[in-house]
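pinging the channel bc i need a second pair of eyes. not urgent but kinda urgent?? the chain im working w is below, pasted from the shared doc
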Amino acid sequence: MRPAEPSNRGKRHTASIRSPESMKGFRNAKTTSTPFEAFAKLTPDLPLNSDPAGLAFRSHFPAFSTSFITSVQTGLFGFFWLLTVTNIRTSAAELAAVIERTAFLRPYGFRVESCALGECNLRVPFSSNLERPGGIVSGMTVMGAADVAMWLAIMTHRGTEEQWVTSDMKTAFLRSGRQEDFLCTARILKIGKRTAYGTVESIGSTSGLLAHHVLTYTRVTS
């Protein structure tokens, strides 16, 4: 009887990582020049670009756990999400320059505190010129600041060259602000080629949430 050949199992690979079937495949492919070529030779029918769930991969390499595949998918999702959220079209300095060159906004003293893709934080400093009788920050000022914050938030997506105008605005005044700065935080919920939809919260530095706004913007084309 021909003596059994010594097994290589456990010397270079462990059973917890690869099954005996996959180990055999790797031994047979040891002459290939690169890992990618080895993988392609072992799995000629594996649809590498059309298998988001990793089902074909697990059918070829059953020893790889579902948690491993999920971890890889999560990492790839995070990578592409990072590319998306950092693709901002306009910086805070550029938004501040827009305010500076827009004459009718200068009396309000608006300041861009920060921005991100689809978001803008606009601070409105207290001024007695913006009060209504009774020492309350005027509703016109609160609504105007929210409108401008949304306008600037759209620019983080679309740049400063396009022309967008307010087509609808709904405001719920929740409490009054008295002798205090307030911050308008605008967030784009949906934006397309011609329409943008979002919300703004106007928050007083001492009073808290002053108003909630829902706005729709439309792109003006020549």
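so The chain has two domains: 20-85, 92-220. and Residues 20-85 form one domain. — does that match what u expected or am i reading it wrong
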